[in-house]
Write a structure and sequence with these properties.
The chain is mainly β. It has a single domain, classed as BH3618-like. The protein is built from 2 helices and 11 strands. The longest helix is centred in the middle third of the chain and has 6 residues.
Length: 162
């Protein structure tokens, strides 16, 4: 599959890497197909690129990299919807907001994108847990700046390889 993305130009996507949304991202519910890109293995931020609209891409981070103490409870109905059979199949992504002050970058920990990496299904799930803020300041987290491996790498096509 080929798309023209505003940030990346004309790219070819392996169909096995397409993530199908079961319910869209808040405000973008009409967009159902995405692919996850990394620009650099040393940088923990990735691109969650819409396949239906090449100008829509979200900067995301593995939620556990942003906050190693993150332990959200994903409701059973959401797990069933995403056909999750094992916790090992799940990756959580938090959407990043980059403010005018680049040292005040935040991650949405209240509404992670729950990805079943085995089935390539995802949904943004709004958690009922008030301890997880919509604006979690990740620049306060040392984990961001450590060299950490992320388990979702096997579904990430590298932009250099495209």
């Amino acid at each position: 599959m080929r798309i023209i993305a505003t940030r990346f130009g004309d790219i070819t996507i392996d169909k096995s890497k397409i993530i199908r949304m079961k319910g869209g991202i808040l405000g973008f519910e009409h967009l159902k197909s995405y692919v996850l890109f990394m620009q650099d293995k040393e940088i923990p931020f990735w691109w969650f690129q819409s396949l239906e609209n090449g100008s829509i891409a979200f900067v995301v981070i593995n939620s556990f990299v942003a906050n190693p103490d993150y332990e959200p409870l994903i409701p059973d109905n959401e797990s069933r919807l995403l056909e999750i059979s094992s916790p090992e199949d799940v990756t959580l992504l938090s959407i990043i907001t980059i403010n005018s002050d680049p040292f005040r970058v935040t991650a949405n920990m209240r509404a992670p994108i729950v990805v079943n990496a085995k089935k390539m299904l995802a949904k943004q799930v709004v958690l009922n847990e008030p301890d997880y803020p919509v604006q979690y300041f990740i620049t306060d987290s040392k984990a961001i700046f450590e060299n950490r491996e992320c388990e979702i790498v096997e579904i990430l096509p590298s932009l250099q390889a495209l």
